[in-house]
Amino acid sequence: MKARRLGAWIAIAIGASYFIVPLLGTLEFSLRMRRDAYSFDAYRSVFSDFQFRETFGYSMMMAVLTIIFGMLLVVPTAYWVRLRLPQVRPIIEFITLLPLVIPAIVIVFGYLRLYNSSSILPLTGSTSGTNMLLMFSYMTLSLPYMYRAVDTAMRAIDVRTLTEAAESLGARWPTILFRCIFPNVMSGVLSGAFITFAIVMGEFTMAALLNRPAFGPYLQLVGANKAYEPSALAVIAFAITWLSMGLLQLVSRFQKSAPAKA
Amino acid sequence: MTTTTASAPLISKRAIIDWLGIAPFMIFALMFLIIPTLYLVTGAFLTPAGEFTFRNIADLFTPSILSAYWISIRVSVASSLGGALIGFFLAWAIVLGGLPTWIRSGLLTFSGVASNFAGVPLAFAFLATLGRTGLVTVFLRDWFGFNLYSTGFNLLSFFGLTITYMYFQIPLMVLILTPALDGIKKEWREAAEILGASTWQYWRMVALPILWPSLLGTTLLLFANAFGAIATAYALTGSSLNIVPILLYAQIRGDVLHNPNLGYALALGMIVITGISNILYIWLRMRAERWQK
Predict the structure, then answer these.
(1) Which pTM value belongs to this model?
(2) Confidence class of residue B4 from pLDDT cuts 50, 70 and 90?
(3) Where are the membrane-spanning stretches (chain A) (predicted)?
(4) Among candidates B271, B30, B158, B211, which has minimal Cα distance to A91?
(5) Does domain B62-289 have CATH number 1.20.120.530?
(6) Would you tell me how many other CB atoms lie within 10 Å of the CB of residue A143?
(7) What is the pLDDT averaged over residues A238-242?
(8) Where do you find CATH 1.10.3720.10 in chain B?
(9) Domain locations in chain A?
(10) What value does the mean pLDDT take over residues B249-253?
Protein backbone atom coordinates (compact mmCIF):
# COMPACT_ATOMS: atom_id res chain seq x y z
CA MET A 1 0.00 0.00 0.00
CA LYS A 2 2.79 2.36 0.94
CA ALA A 3 4.78 1.52 -2.17
CA ARG A 4 1.71 2.14 -4.27
CA ARG A 5 1.16 5.56 -2.75
CA LEU A 6 4.82 6.42 -3.28
CA GLY A 7 4.54 5.35 -6.92
CA ALA A 8 1.43 7.47 -7.32
CA TRP A 9 3.20 10.52 -5.90
CA ILE A 10 6.14 9.96 -8.24
CA ALA A 11 3.81 9.68 -11.26
CA ILE A 12 2.02 12.87 -10.26
CA ALA A 13 5.30 14.69 -9.65
CA ILE A 14 6.66 13.75 -13.08
CA GLY A 15 3.38 14.60 -14.78
CA ALA A 16 3.03 17.88 -12.94
CA SER A 17 6.54 19.00 -13.81
CA TYR A 18 6.00 18.15 -17.48
CA PHE A 19 2.82 20.21 -17.45
CA ILE A 20 4.04 23.13 -15.36
CA VAL A 21 7.57 23.70 -16.67
CA PRO A 22 6.47 24.80 -20.18
CA LEU A 23 3.98 27.21 -18.63
CA LEU A 24 6.69 28.65 -16.37
CA GLY A 25 9.06 28.79 -19.31
CA THR A 26 6.53 30.70 -21.38
CA LEU A 27 5.76 33.11 -18.56
CA GLU A 28 9.42 33.69 -17.81
CA PHE A 29 10.27 34.21 -21.48
CA SER A 30 7.42 36.67 -21.94
CA LEU A 31 8.88 38.84 -19.14
CA ARG A 32 12.42 38.85 -20.54
CA MET A 33 12.03 41.51 -23.22
CA ARG A 34 14.06 44.12 -21.31
CA ARG A 35 17.66 43.00 -21.05
CA ASP A 36 18.45 43.72 -17.43
CA ALA A 37 15.18 43.06 -15.62
CA TYR A 38 11.83 41.36 -15.87
CA SER A 39 9.14 43.59 -17.34
CA PHE A 40 5.76 43.52 -18.97
CA ASP A 41 7.15 45.14 -22.13
CA ALA A 42 6.17 42.20 -24.33
CA TYR A 43 2.57 42.44 -23.13
CA ARG A 44 2.58 46.19 -23.65
CA SER A 45 3.87 45.65 -27.16
CA VAL A 46 1.17 43.05 -27.84
CA PHE A 47 -1.70 45.13 -26.51
CA SER A 48 -0.59 48.23 -28.39
CA ASP A 49 -0.49 46.32 -31.67
CA PHE A 50 -3.63 47.28 -33.55
CA GLN A 51 -3.50 44.00 -35.46
CA PHE A 52 -3.82 42.18 -32.16
CA ARG A 53 -6.96 44.09 -31.28
CA GLU A 54 -8.35 43.67 -34.76
CA THR A 55 -7.76 39.92 -35.09
CA PHE A 56 -8.79 39.28 -31.50
CA GLY A 57 -12.03 41.18 -32.06
CA TYR A 58 -12.62 39.36 -35.33
CA SER A 59 -12.20 35.91 -33.76
CA MET A 60 -14.32 36.93 -30.79
CA MET A 61 -17.12 37.99 -33.12
CA MET A 62 -16.73 34.78 -35.11
CA ALA A 63 -16.95 32.74 -31.90
CA VAL A 64 -20.15 34.48 -30.85
CA LEU A 65 -21.74 34.04 -34.28
CA THR A 66 -20.66 30.39 -34.38
CA ILE A 67 -22.23 29.78 -30.98
CA ILE A 68 -25.51 31.52 -31.92
CA PHE A 69 -25.96 29.84 -35.29
CA GLY A 70 -24.60 26.53 -34.04
CA MET A 71 -27.11 26.45 -31.23
CA LEU A 72 -29.96 27.48 -33.53
CA LEU A 73 -29.04 24.45 -35.63
CA VAL A 74 -28.20 21.94 -32.92
CA VAL A 75 -30.87 22.53 -30.25
CA PRO A 76 -33.95 22.22 -32.52
CA THR A 77 -32.39 19.19 -34.24
CA ALA A 78 -31.56 17.40 -30.99
CA TYR A 79 -35.04 18.27 -29.68
CA TRP A 80 -36.79 17.08 -32.81
CA VAL A 81 -34.82 13.83 -32.92
CA ARG A 82 -35.71 13.06 -29.31
CA LEU A 83 -39.35 13.95 -29.80
CA ARG A 84 -40.25 12.64 -33.24
CA LEU A 85 -37.43 10.73 -34.87
CA PRO A 86 -35.67 8.58 -32.26
CA GLN A 87 -34.91 6.06 -34.99
CA VAL A 88 -32.50 8.42 -36.79
CA ARG A 89 -30.54 9.23 -33.64
CA PRO A 90 -27.62 6.90 -34.45
CA ILE A 91 -27.27 8.51 -37.88
CA ILE A 92 -27.31 12.04 -36.49
CA GLU A 93 -24.82 11.07 -33.81
CA PHE A 94 -22.56 9.53 -36.40
CA ILE A 95 -22.67 12.71 -38.50
CA THR A 96 -21.86 14.87 -35.49
CA LEU A 97 -18.78 12.74 -34.82
CA LEU A 98 -17.48 13.03 -38.38
CA PRO A 99 -15.58 16.30 -37.78
CA LEU A 100 -13.41 14.39 -35.31
CA VAL A 101 -12.64 11.79 -37.97
CA ILE A 102 -12.02 14.04 -40.96
CA PRO A 103 -9.08 16.37 -40.29
CA ALA A 104 -9.94 20.08 -40.39
CA ILE A 105 -7.45 20.70 -43.16
CA VAL A 106 -9.24 18.17 -45.37
CA ILE A 107 -12.63 19.77 -44.74
CA VAL A 108 -11.38 23.24 -45.62
CA PHE A 109 -9.64 21.84 -48.70
CA GLY A 110 -13.03 20.56 -49.83
CA TYR A 111 -14.60 23.99 -49.22
CA LEU A 112 -11.95 25.73 -51.29
CA ARG A 113 -12.62 23.43 -54.21
CA LEU A 114 -16.39 23.36 -53.87
CA TYR A 115 -17.13 27.01 -53.13
CA ASN A 116 -14.45 28.78 -55.17
CA SER A 117 -15.30 31.75 -57.33
CA SER A 118 -15.97 29.65 -60.43
CA SER A 119 -18.42 27.26 -58.77
CA ILE A 120 -22.23 27.43 -58.57
CA LEU A 121 -22.07 28.76 -55.01
CA PRO A 122 -19.06 31.13 -55.08
CA LEU A 123 -18.80 31.79 -51.34
CA THR A 124 -15.07 32.52 -51.44
CA GLY A 125 -15.63 35.13 -54.16
CA SER A 126 -16.58 37.86 -51.68
CA THR A 127 -15.44 38.87 -48.21
CA SER A 128 -18.83 38.39 -46.61
CA GLY A 129 -19.19 35.03 -48.35
CA THR A 130 -15.81 33.91 -47.02
CA ASN A 131 -16.73 35.11 -43.54
CA MET A 132 -19.87 33.03 -43.75
CA LEU A 133 -17.93 30.02 -44.96
CA LEU A 134 -15.49 30.42 -42.07
CA MET A 135 -18.38 30.56 -39.63
CA PHE A 136 -19.88 27.41 -41.15
CA SER A 137 -16.50 25.72 -40.87
CA TYR A 138 -16.32 26.63 -37.17
CA MET A 139 -19.84 25.30 -36.71
CA THR A 140 -18.68 22.05 -38.29
CA LEU A 141 -15.62 21.86 -36.05
CA SER A 142 -17.64 22.45 -32.89
CA LEU A 143 -20.53 20.18 -33.92
CA PRO A 144 -19.32 17.12 -31.95
CA TYR A 145 -18.99 19.12 -28.73
CA MET A 146 -22.15 21.20 -29.14
CA TYR A 147 -24.36 18.28 -30.06
CA ARG A 148 -23.16 16.09 -27.26
CA ALA A 149 -23.48 18.86 -24.67
CA VAL A 150 -27.02 19.73 -25.74
CA ASP A 151 -28.10 16.11 -26.11
CA THR A 152 -26.82 15.26 -22.64
CA ALA A 153 -28.72 18.19 -21.16
CA MET A 154 -31.84 17.09 -23.05
CA ARG A 155 -31.62 13.61 -21.60
CA ALA A 156 -32.15 15.11 -18.15
CA ILE A 157 -35.47 16.74 -19.06
CA ASP A 158 -38.65 15.08 -20.23
CA VAL A 159 -38.95 16.58 -23.69
CA ARG A 160 -42.29 14.95 -24.49
CA THR A 161 -44.10 16.02 -21.32
CA LEU A 162 -42.73 19.56 -21.57
CA THR A 163 -43.92 19.80 -25.17
CA GLU A 164 -47.37 18.41 -24.41
CA ALA A 165 -47.76 20.70 -21.42
CA ALA A 166 -46.82 23.72 -23.51
CA GLU A 167 -49.11 22.62 -26.35
CA SER A 168 -52.08 22.15 -24.06
CA LEU A 169 -51.54 25.70 -22.81
CA GLY A 170 -51.77 26.84 -26.41
CA ALA A 171 -48.10 27.52 -27.13
CA ARG A 172 -46.91 27.55 -30.72
CA TRP A 173 -43.66 25.99 -31.94
CA PRO A 174 -41.44 29.08 -31.53
CA THR A 175 -42.74 29.53 -27.98
CA ILE A 176 -42.15 25.89 -27.12
CA LEU A 177 -38.65 25.96 -28.54
CA PHE A 178 -37.41 29.28 -27.21
CA ARG A 179 -39.28 29.65 -23.94
CA CYS A 180 -39.56 26.03 -22.94
CA ILE A 181 -36.79 23.90 -24.42
CA PHE A 182 -33.90 26.37 -24.66
CA PRO A 183 -34.07 27.52 -21.00
CA ASN A 184 -34.23 23.91 -19.84
CA VAL A 185 -31.10 22.87 -21.72
CA MET A 186 -29.24 26.07 -20.89
CA SER A 187 -26.48 24.19 -19.06
CA GLY A 188 -25.79 22.15 -22.19
CA VAL A 189 -25.96 25.24 -24.38
CA LEU A 190 -23.46 27.01 -22.13
CA SER A 191 -21.00 24.09 -21.98
CA GLY A 192 -21.16 23.82 -25.76
CA ALA A 193 -20.66 27.56 -26.02
CA PHE A 194 -17.54 27.65 -23.85
CA ILE A 195 -15.78 24.83 -25.63
CA THR A 196 -16.72 26.38 -28.99
CA PHE A 197 -15.27 29.67 -27.80
CA ALA A 198 -11.98 28.00 -26.89
CA ILE A 199 -11.83 26.19 -30.24
CA VAL A 200 -12.62 29.24 -32.39
CA MET A 201 -10.24 31.60 -30.58
CA GLY A 202 -7.21 29.42 -31.24
CA GLU A 203 -8.17 27.93 -34.59
CA PHE A 204 -5.50 28.32 -37.26
CA THR A 205 -6.01 26.06 -40.28
CA MET A 206 -9.44 27.16 -41.46
CA ALA A 207 -8.82 30.86 -41.06
CA ALA A 208 -5.35 30.72 -42.63
CA LEU A 209 -6.51 28.81 -45.70
CA LEU A 210 -9.60 30.96 -46.13
CA ASN A 211 -7.37 34.03 -45.74
CA ARG A 212 -9.36 35.68 -42.99
CA PRO A 213 -7.72 37.98 -40.40
CA ALA A 214 -8.39 35.75 -37.37
CA PHE A 215 -6.44 35.41 -34.14
CA GLY A 216 -4.85 32.03 -35.00
CA PRO A 217 -3.08 33.15 -38.19
CA TYR A 218 -2.05 36.35 -36.40
CA LEU A 219 -0.39 34.27 -33.69
CA GLN A 220 1.49 32.32 -36.32
CA LEU A 221 2.61 35.54 -38.03
CA VAL A 222 3.91 37.03 -34.78
CA GLY A 223 5.66 33.76 -33.99
CA ALA A 224 7.52 33.88 -37.26
CA ASN A 225 8.62 37.50 -36.86
CA LYS A 226 9.11 38.39 -33.21
CA ALA A 227 10.98 37.05 -30.22
CA TYR A 228 9.19 37.80 -26.95
CA GLU A 229 5.67 38.69 -28.04
CA PRO A 230 4.79 35.07 -28.96
CA SER A 231 5.31 33.99 -25.36
CA ALA A 232 3.13 36.81 -24.11
CA LEU A 233 0.48 35.76 -26.63
CA ALA A 234 0.78 32.13 -25.54
CA VAL A 235 0.18 33.20 -21.94
CA ILE A 236 -2.88 35.17 -23.05
CA ALA A 237 -4.16 32.25 -25.13
CA PHE A 238 -3.67 29.87 -22.24
CA ALA A 239 -5.60 32.24 -19.99
CA ILE A 240 -8.48 32.28 -22.51
CA THR A 241 -8.56 28.48 -22.69
CA TRP A 242 -8.36 28.25 -18.91
CA LEU A 243 -11.19 30.74 -18.52
CA SER A 244 -13.54 29.01 -20.94
CA MET A 245 -12.78 25.53 -19.58
CA GLY A 246 -13.13 26.79 -16.01
CA LEU A 247 -16.55 28.22 -16.81
CA LEU A 248 -17.44 24.96 -18.55
CA GLN A 249 -16.62 22.92 -15.46
CA LEU A 250 -18.56 25.33 -13.30
CA VAL A 251 -21.61 24.92 -15.54
CA SER A 252 -21.36 21.13 -15.73
CA ARG A 253 -21.01 20.90 -11.95
CA PHE A 254 -24.17 22.98 -11.66
CA GLN A 255 -25.83 20.66 -14.15
CA LYS A 256 -25.01 17.57 -12.11
CA SER A 257 -26.42 19.03 -8.92
CA ALA A 258 -29.70 19.82 -10.65
CA PRO A 259 -32.34 17.11 -10.18
CA ALA A 260 -32.20 14.75 -13.13
CA LYS A 261 -35.25 12.99 -14.46
CA ALA A 262 -35.37 9.95 -16.69
CA MET B 1 -41.19 4.89 -42.66
CA THR B 2 -42.02 4.24 -46.32
CA THR B 3 -44.75 1.74 -45.43
CA THR B 4 -46.63 4.28 -43.29
CA THR B 5 -46.39 6.92 -46.00
CA ALA B 6 -47.91 4.52 -48.50
CA SER B 7 -50.82 3.29 -46.35
CA ALA B 8 -52.48 6.37 -44.81
CA PRO B 9 -52.31 9.91 -46.19
CA LEU B 10 -52.89 11.49 -42.78
CA ILE B 11 -49.82 9.82 -41.27
CA SER B 12 -47.80 10.63 -44.36
CA LYS B 13 -48.28 14.35 -43.77
CA ARG B 14 -47.01 13.93 -40.26
CA ALA B 15 -44.09 11.87 -41.49
CA ILE B 16 -43.14 14.60 -43.93
CA ILE B 17 -43.21 17.17 -41.15
CA ASP B 18 -41.14 14.83 -39.00
CA TRP B 19 -38.46 14.59 -41.63
CA LEU B 20 -38.62 18.31 -42.45
CA GLY B 21 -37.67 18.98 -38.82
CA ILE B 22 -34.17 17.64 -39.34
CA ALA B 23 -33.85 19.04 -42.87
CA PRO B 24 -31.79 22.11 -41.84
CA PHE B 25 -29.30 19.91 -40.05
CA MET B 26 -29.09 17.47 -42.93
CA ILE B 27 -28.61 20.25 -45.47
CA PHE B 28 -25.89 21.77 -43.30
CA ALA B 29 -24.14 18.44 -42.87
CA LEU B 30 -24.32 17.71 -46.58
CA MET B 31 -23.09 21.13 -47.67
CA PHE B 32 -20.30 21.66 -45.17
CA LEU B 33 -19.19 18.20 -44.21
CA ILE B 34 -20.21 15.39 -46.49
CA ILE B 35 -20.17 16.81 -50.01
CA PRO B 36 -16.82 18.65 -49.58
CA THR B 37 -15.27 15.40 -48.34
CA LEU B 38 -16.83 13.31 -51.10
CA TYR B 39 -15.65 15.84 -53.65
CA LEU B 40 -12.05 15.24 -52.58
CA VAL B 41 -12.53 11.48 -52.37
CA THR B 42 -13.90 11.25 -55.92
CA GLY B 43 -11.32 13.77 -57.15
CA ALA B 44 -8.60 11.43 -55.94
CA PHE B 45 -9.73 8.93 -58.58
CA LEU B 46 -9.96 11.39 -61.47
CA THR B 47 -7.47 12.89 -63.88
CA PRO B 48 -7.47 16.69 -64.23
CA ALA B 49 -9.50 16.07 -67.41
CA GLY B 50 -12.12 14.19 -65.41
CA GLU B 51 -11.45 10.58 -66.36
CA PHE B 52 -11.28 7.71 -63.91
CA THR B 53 -7.78 6.72 -62.84
CA PHE B 54 -5.75 5.05 -60.12
CA ARG B 55 -2.73 7.13 -61.14
CA ASN B 56 -3.09 9.60 -58.20
CA ILE B 57 -3.24 6.82 -55.65
CA ALA B 58 -0.22 5.17 -57.24
CA ASP B 59 1.61 8.51 -57.22
CA LEU B 60 1.24 8.66 -53.44
CA PHE B 61 3.86 5.94 -53.31
CA THR B 62 6.65 8.22 -54.49
CA PRO B 63 9.54 8.74 -52.04
CA SER B 64 8.77 12.34 -51.05
CA ILE B 65 5.09 11.68 -50.25
CA LEU B 66 5.81 8.33 -48.62
CA SER B 67 8.39 9.97 -46.38
CA ALA B 68 5.82 12.58 -45.36
CA TYR B 69 3.34 9.86 -44.40
CA TRP B 70 6.09 7.91 -42.68
CA ILE B 71 7.23 10.80 -40.47
CA SER B 72 3.61 11.72 -39.71
CA ILE B 73 2.86 8.16 -38.66
CA ARG B 74 6.03 8.00 -36.56
CA VAL B 75 5.25 11.25 -34.74
CA SER B 76 1.64 10.17 -34.20
CA VAL B 77 2.59 6.70 -32.97
CA ALA B 78 5.31 8.00 -30.67
CA SER B 79 3.20 10.78 -29.19
CA SER B 80 0.15 8.55 -28.78
CA LEU B 81 2.11 5.71 -27.15
CA GLY B 82 3.99 8.14 -24.92
CA GLY B 83 0.80 10.01 -24.11
CA ALA B 84 -1.07 6.78 -23.42
CA LEU B 85 1.65 5.40 -21.16
CA ILE B 86 2.14 8.54 -19.06
CA GLY B 87 -1.59 9.28 -19.12
CA PHE B 88 -2.29 5.76 -17.87
CA PHE B 89 0.07 6.16 -14.93
CA LEU B 90 -1.40 9.54 -14.04
CA ALA B 91 -4.96 8.18 -14.23
CA TRP B 92 -3.87 5.16 -12.19
CA ALA B 93 -2.28 7.46 -9.60
CA ILE B 94 -5.39 9.57 -9.10
CA VAL B 95 -7.86 6.67 -9.11
CA LEU B 96 -6.02 3.85 -7.31
CA GLY B 97 -2.98 5.57 -5.82
CA GLY B 98 -4.65 6.67 -2.59
CA LEU B 99 -3.81 10.33 -3.14
CA PRO B 100 -5.72 13.26 -1.62
CA THR B 101 -8.86 14.12 -3.58
CA TRP B 102 -7.72 17.64 -4.43
CA ILE B 103 -5.02 16.15 -6.63
CA ARG B 104 -7.62 14.19 -8.55
CA SER B 105 -9.91 17.16 -9.18
CA GLY B 106 -6.94 19.39 -9.86
CA LEU B 107 -5.48 17.05 -12.47
CA LEU B 108 -8.85 16.48 -14.15
CA THR B 109 -9.54 20.22 -14.35
CA PHE B 110 -6.08 20.86 -15.72
CA SER B 111 -6.49 18.02 -18.24
CA GLY B 112 -9.71 19.60 -19.49
CA VAL B 113 -7.81 22.80 -20.17
CA ALA B 114 -4.58 21.30 -21.51
CA SER B 115 -6.30 18.90 -23.92
CA ASN B 116 -7.75 22.00 -25.57
CA PHE B 117 -4.52 23.98 -25.39
CA ALA B 118 -3.13 22.99 -28.74
CA GLY B 119 -2.37 24.87 -31.89
CA VAL B 120 -0.02 27.81 -32.31
CA PRO B 121 0.31 28.90 -28.63
CA LEU B 122 1.48 25.42 -27.64
CA ALA B 123 4.35 25.73 -30.10
CA PHE B 124 5.29 29.08 -28.52
CA ALA B 125 5.24 27.54 -25.06
CA PHE B 126 7.67 24.82 -26.07
CA LEU B 127 9.92 27.22 -27.94
CA ALA B 128 10.13 29.30 -24.77
CA THR B 129 10.95 26.18 -22.76
CA LEU B 130 13.12 23.92 -24.91
CA GLY B 131 14.12 26.28 -27.70
CA ARG B 132 17.73 27.49 -28.01
CA THR B 133 17.19 30.23 -25.42
CA GLY B 134 14.34 28.49 -23.60
CA LEU B 135 14.05 28.19 -19.84
CA VAL B 136 15.12 24.56 -19.54
CA THR B 137 17.89 24.87 -22.12
CA VAL B 138 19.38 27.91 -20.35
CA PHE B 139 18.91 26.34 -16.92
CA LEU B 140 20.78 23.19 -17.93
CA ARG B 141 23.56 25.26 -19.50
CA ASP B 142 24.06 27.72 -16.64
CA TRP B 143 23.68 25.32 -13.71
CA PHE B 144 25.03 22.04 -15.03
CA GLY B 145 27.17 23.20 -17.93
CA PHE B 146 25.09 20.86 -20.08
CA ASN B 147 24.41 21.97 -23.60
CA LEU B 148 21.17 20.31 -24.69
CA TYR B 149 21.64 21.24 -28.31
CA SER B 150 25.11 19.70 -28.50
CA THR B 151 23.52 16.29 -27.94
CA GLY B 152 21.81 16.60 -31.29
CA PHE B 153 18.50 17.53 -29.70
CA ASN B 154 16.41 19.89 -31.74
CA LEU B 155 12.91 21.05 -30.93
CA LEU B 156 12.21 21.43 -34.64
CA SER B 157 12.50 17.71 -35.25
CA PHE B 158 10.70 14.40 -34.87
CA PHE B 159 11.61 14.16 -31.20
CA GLY B 160 10.75 17.79 -30.42
CA LEU B 161 7.40 17.54 -32.13
CA THR B 162 6.61 14.32 -30.25
CA ILE B 163 7.37 15.92 -26.87
CA THR B 164 5.22 18.92 -27.80
CA TYR B 165 2.26 16.83 -28.97
CA MET B 166 2.30 14.87 -25.75
CA TYR B 167 1.24 18.04 -23.98
CA PHE B 168 -2.30 17.60 -25.31
CA GLN B 169 -2.12 13.80 -25.67
CA ILE B 170 -1.48 12.98 -22.01
CA PRO B 171 -4.43 15.05 -20.69
CA LEU B 172 -6.77 13.48 -23.26
CA MET B 173 -5.69 10.02 -22.10
CA VAL B 174 -6.24 11.01 -18.46
CA LEU B 175 -9.72 12.34 -19.24
CA ILE B 176 -10.85 9.22 -21.10
CA LEU B 177 -9.13 6.62 -18.97
CA THR B 178 -10.13 7.90 -15.52
CA PRO B 179 -13.77 6.75 -15.90
CA ALA B 180 -12.54 3.37 -17.16
CA LEU B 181 -10.31 2.95 -14.10
CA ASP B 182 -13.17 4.10 -11.89
CA GLY B 183 -15.13 1.18 -13.31
CA ILE B 184 -12.71 -1.36 -11.88
CA LYS B 185 -14.44 -2.87 -8.90
CA LYS B 186 -12.65 -3.33 -5.60
CA GLU B 187 -14.23 -6.78 -5.32
CA TRP B 188 -12.24 -8.04 -8.30
CA ARG B 189 -8.99 -7.21 -6.59
CA GLU B 190 -10.16 -8.67 -3.29
CA ALA B 191 -11.32 -11.84 -5.01
CA ALA B 192 -7.97 -12.16 -6.76
CA GLU B 193 -6.10 -11.62 -3.49
CA ILE B 194 -8.17 -14.22 -1.65
CA LEU B 195 -7.30 -16.68 -4.39
CA GLY B 196 -3.67 -15.91 -3.72
CA ALA B 197 -2.85 -13.69 -6.69
CA SER B 198 0.10 -11.32 -6.49
CA THR B 199 -0.30 -7.69 -7.58
CA TRP B 200 1.41 -8.53 -10.85
CA GLN B 201 -0.90 -11.50 -11.46
CA TYR B 202 -3.94 -9.39 -10.65
CA TRP B 203 -2.96 -6.74 -13.20
CA ARG B 204 -1.90 -9.21 -15.86
CA MET B 205 -4.86 -11.58 -15.56
CA VAL B 206 -7.74 -9.41 -14.31
CA ALA B 207 -7.31 -5.66 -14.65
CA LEU B 208 -5.44 -5.37 -17.94
CA PRO B 209 -7.68 -7.80 -19.88
CA ILE B 210 -10.63 -5.64 -18.81
CA LEU B 211 -8.82 -2.39 -19.52
CA TRP B 212 -7.11 -3.23 -22.80
CA PRO B 213 -10.00 -2.18 -25.08
CA SER B 214 -10.04 1.23 -23.34
CA LEU B 215 -6.27 1.49 -23.45
CA LEU B 216 -5.87 0.47 -27.06
CA GLY B 217 -8.95 2.40 -28.19
CA THR B 218 -7.83 5.61 -26.56
CA THR B 219 -4.33 5.19 -27.97
CA LEU B 220 -5.89 4.98 -31.44
CA LEU B 221 -7.89 8.12 -30.74
CA LEU B 222 -4.70 9.90 -29.70
CA PHE B 223 -3.04 8.67 -32.88
CA ALA B 224 -5.77 10.16 -35.08
CA ASN B 225 -5.68 13.31 -32.99
CA ALA B 226 -1.96 13.79 -33.65
CA PHE B 227 -2.16 12.74 -37.28
CA GLY B 228 -4.62 15.47 -38.25
CA ALA B 229 -2.99 18.25 -36.21
CA ILE B 230 -1.20 20.93 -38.17
CA ALA B 231 -1.15 24.28 -36.36
CA THR B 232 1.36 23.29 -33.67
CA ALA B 233 3.74 21.70 -36.16
CA TYR B 234 3.45 24.58 -38.58
CA ALA B 235 4.14 27.21 -35.93
CA LEU B 236 6.99 25.16 -34.50
CA THR B 237 8.86 24.12 -37.59
CA GLY B 238 7.47 26.27 -40.38
CA SER B 239 7.62 23.97 -43.36
CA SER B 240 10.97 22.39 -42.44
CA LEU B 241 9.44 19.20 -41.07
CA ASN B 242 7.73 17.37 -43.89
CA ILE B 243 4.62 15.85 -42.27
CA VAL B 244 1.46 15.10 -44.26
CA PRO B 245 -0.77 17.96 -42.97
CA ILE B 246 2.00 20.48 -43.71
CA LEU B 247 2.52 19.02 -47.18
CA LEU B 248 -1.22 19.23 -47.80
CA TYR B 249 -1.21 22.81 -46.51
CA ALA B 250 1.53 23.71 -48.97
CA GLN B 251 -0.35 21.90 -51.74
CA ILE B 252 -3.55 23.84 -51.03
CA ARG B 253 -1.62 27.11 -50.90
CA GLY B 254 0.39 26.66 -54.06
CA ASP B 255 0.01 23.26 -55.74
CA VAL B 256 3.54 22.16 -54.82
CA LEU B 257 2.85 18.69 -56.20
CA HIS B 258 1.94 20.17 -59.62
CA ASN B 259 -1.17 18.04 -59.81
CA PRO B 260 -4.37 19.13 -58.03
CA ASN B 261 -5.79 15.61 -58.11
CA LEU B 262 -2.72 14.26 -56.37
CA GLY B 263 -3.60 16.73 -53.59
CA TYR B 264 -7.02 15.06 -53.34
CA ALA B 265 -5.33 11.68 -53.07
CA LEU B 266 -3.16 13.07 -50.26
CA ALA B 267 -6.30 14.18 -48.44
CA LEU B 268 -7.92 10.80 -49.07
CA GLY B 269 -4.91 9.11 -47.50
CA MET B 270 -5.37 11.22 -44.37
CA ILE B 271 -9.09 10.41 -44.18
CA VAL B 272 -8.37 6.69 -44.56
CA ILE B 273 -5.78 6.68 -41.79
CA THR B 274 -7.77 8.77 -39.29
CA GLY B 275 -10.96 6.96 -40.31
CA ILE B 276 -9.59 3.49 -39.66
CA SER B 277 -8.16 4.44 -36.29
CA ASN B 278 -11.44 6.11 -35.27
CA ILE B 279 -13.59 3.17 -36.36
CA LEU B 280 -11.35 0.81 -34.38
CA TYR B 281 -11.60 3.21 -31.44
CA ILE B 282 -15.41 3.21 -31.53
CA TRP B 283 -15.48 -0.58 -31.83
CA LEU B 284 -13.07 -0.99 -28.92
CA ARG B 285 -15.00 1.50 -26.83
CA MET B 286 -18.16 -0.53 -27.32
CA ARG B 287 -16.27 -3.60 -26.10
CA ALA B 288 -14.93 -1.65 -23.13
CA GLU B 289 -18.38 -0.42 -22.13
CA ARG B 290 -19.51 -3.99 -21.50
CA TRP B 291 -17.58 -3.84 -18.22
CA GLN B 292 -18.76 -0.40 -17.19
CA LYS B 293 -22.39 -1.25 -16.59
Answers:
(1) 0.87
(2) very low
(3) 7-25, 56-79, 91-112, 132-150, 189-210, 230-251
(4) B30
(5) no
(6) 26
(7) 87
(8) 62-289
(9) 41-257
(10) 89
